[in-house]
Amino acid sequence: MKFWDDEKSIVxxxxxxxxxxxxxxxMAVGGPWVTAWFVTAAHLHASAQLTxxxxxxxYACAALAIGMLxxxxxxxxxxxxxxxxVPENVTALRRISWCCAGAAVLCLAAVFICYRPFAxxxxxxxxxxxxxxxxxxxxxxxVRMKNELDYTI
Length: 153
Known about the structure:
Distance between the termini: 39 Å
Structural class: mainly alpha
Oligomer: single chain
Helix content: over 70%
Order of helices and strands: HHHHH
Largest sheet: none
Radius of gyration: 19 Å
Shape: elongated
């Protein structure tokens, strides 16, 4: 008997996604406090304009993260049910990739607005968008092949 299997992996991943979703919502609710803390911790010049821009970027990133996490959760639920190569998973992966790309653009904007270390987040989100896009293309090809096989007698 194996200690770790595919089912446990999916359950663990779903739990982590839910925890990340809760954390994301909590940070969005506490946006003004998180922004004030960040401005202080990063030793940025605290102006109302900077704080407002960071808050807007934070809320935009939170919206993208929440959308991405919900799509990922639904994707994992379908995988758990054995629905792997279905069009809904291709759509979910496309959404996840666009959310990562959007976060990369927002973090890149933050580099020019206030804080250069956001470049690391921009690069990570951009790279993740590319990886998920490749995975989405593989799933799309598998769905096409599955559909062709379904119509073959």
